[in-house]
Design goal:
The protein has about 500 residues and is an alpha+beta fold. Helices cover about 50% and strands about 10% of the residues. The strands form 4 sheets. The chain has a 5-stranded mixed beta sheet. It has a two-stranded antiparallel sheet with strand order 5-6. α6 packs antiparallel against α7, α6 runs parallel beside α17 and α7 runs antiparallel to α13.
Length: about 500
């Protein structure tokens, strides 16, 4: 038979199979745009701004709809009611981690972020317990963050009010905090190896947020044909994991089971206790990958939020002045800010919440999946179906926030100026998969920002009205544009 005919027949069969697979489940799933064979709805989705496409789909199909990002269906949850109903009211059923091929190739089914089933439950339970035992949300961690805040202030003084890009200075502070929890040590802000780690981490977040990565995740077969981007991502991850591996080996040699010093020690002790368990989840590889997850998530999310916060404060000097006035009144100039101050600083608290709401750091959350077939709003979502809680639609809901497209701290203040909580505040996601480091991140944002504004005035190099605050990428994360500023000592 002519090779061309064989090729046409094969392609025809592939198209028919694709059409059958896509149509066979559509009667049960929520409604959505009609997918094309193989590529699904990819031509109808703007990979540079998926959120805009989801908003348009929601206007046609409602708050729960199905899109095909490739050949497999993805159920999108749009708006607070749908997200809450799934992640909180049906938390267990929506607690699985959805398909994330790029991360799966790097983590190989290990760690605390991209695992599933009993493995995920065991590792997450252990991680939360260990972090709490080392004082997450308690005074011992607060003292570490305060000490790091003082180091950060001293490093900013060394800029001598000259223009500087704050990217890596602001990365060092949260990175040192998470390192003190994992390894019990911090690094100097000028340490070359330390900065190299941060560069690798920063590069990976930018790669993961690129439009290409959205395509790779939905068409994983392309990775094998265009491997360069994934190789960069993998090599950066290997560099960070090799650093963690060195620390683990050092800990093995000096381990005192009666006196654990940090997360690695606790994990090594747990490994010994569980060594006869046939369903062993606490392994050497699991330790390295879990520490890698904590290192990355504990550094980059907080540092990106800090970087974006300073940019917004430069853009809104009136807001900055009000925060500094509150710091002067409550904290003064002669002691470090502490978490007890927070309840007396409603405006500062509102500003930090508004920063997190406005920047919308992880727009589509990490993908969830349903643990078994579930009837949800009269639709049937089959086990394993990927679910995307569109967090932007919650953080930018006009029913809750009067001017969602604007940066306005009054979104979190009542008429008397007191701080106002909101159930719509979900930058850390919600439910069973909520960020394990939420408490630490909240503490760091408050103590680092108040320490900076207690000691420095922020000076923009351009007129604040001309500052561009539009994210340069909005895929996996919202990445702020690069900028420079001057830290002028008060």
């Amino acid at each position: 038979m002519d090779p061309a005919v064989v090729l046409v027949l094969c392609l025809s069969c592939l198209l028919l199979l694709s059409l059958w697979r896509q149509s066979s489940g559509r009667g049960k799933l929520p409604p959505g745009p009609t997918p094309l064979p193989i590529i699904g709805n990819m031509l109808q989705v703007d990979v540079k701004d998926i959120g805009k496409s989801f908003t348009n789909f929601s206007k046609v199909y409602g708050p729960v709809f199905t899109v095909y990002l490739g050949m497999k269906p993805t159920v999108v949850l749009y708006g607070y009611e749908a997200v809450k109903e799934a992640l909180i009211d049906h938390g267990e059923e929506f607690s699985a981690r959805g398909h994330f091929p790029v991360a799966e190739r790097i983590n190989k089914g290990l760690g605390v972020i991209f695992t599933n089933g009993d493995r995920w439950k065991q590792i997450r339970r252990f991680t939360l317990m260990t972090l709490r035992n080392f004082g997450m949300g308690k005074r011992s961690i607060e003292e570490r963050v305060q000490e790091e805040a003082r180091c950060l202030v001293e490093e900013l003084r060394k800029t001598k009010a000259s223009p500087c890009d704050p990217t890596f200075i602001l990365s060092c502070a949260p990175c040192n905090v998470i390192c003190s929890i994992i390894f019990q040590n911090r690094s100097d802000y000028k340490d070359k190896h330390f900065l190299k780690l941060l560069e690798k981490l920063y590069a990976n977040v930018n790669i993961l947020s690129s439009p290409w990565m959205q395509i790779y995740n939905n068409f994983p077969a392309l990775i094998d044909y265009f491997p360069a981007t994934l190789n960069t991502l993998s090599n950066n991850a290997v560099f960070i994991k090799s650093y963690i591996l060195e620390k683990v080996k050092e800990h093995q040699e000096s381990l005192d089971v009666n006196n654990p010093r940090d997360f690695i020690d606790c994990f090594l002790i747990k490994m010994e206790q569980e060594k006869n368990n046939q369903q062993l989840e606490f392994t050497f590889e699991a330790l390295v990958t879990t520490a890698f997850d904590l290192f990355g998530a504990g550094t980059e999310t907080t540092s990106t939020t800090l970087r974006y916060a300073l940019l917004l404060l430069l853009k809104h000097p009136d807001v900055t002045a009000k925060v500094q006035e509150e710091i002067d009144r409550v904290v003064g100039r002669h002691r470090s800010p502490c978490m007890q101050d927070k309840s007396h600083m409603p405006y500062t608290d509102a500003v930090i919440h508004e920063v997190q709401r406005y920047i919308d750091l992880i727009p589509t959350d990490l993908p969830h999946a349903v643990t078994h077939d579930i009837k949800f709003r009269n639709y049937l979502i089959p086990k394993g179906t990927t679910v995307l809680p569109f967090l932007t639609s919650v953080l930018y809901d006009s029913k809750e926030f009067s001017k969602p497209e604007m940066f306005d701290p009054s979104h979190f203040l009542d008429e008397s100026g007191k701080f106002k909580k909101s159930d719509y505040f979900m930058p850390f996601s919600a439910g069973k998969r909520i960020c394990v480091g939420e408490g630490l991140a909240r503490m760091e944002l408050f103590l680092f920002l108040t320490s900076i504004l207690q000691n420095f005035n922020l000076k923009s190099l351009v007129d604040p009205k001309d500052l561009d605050i539009t994210p340069v990428a909005k895929g996996f994360a919202s990445v702020p544009p690069l900028y420079q500023l001057c830290f002028i000592p008060v």
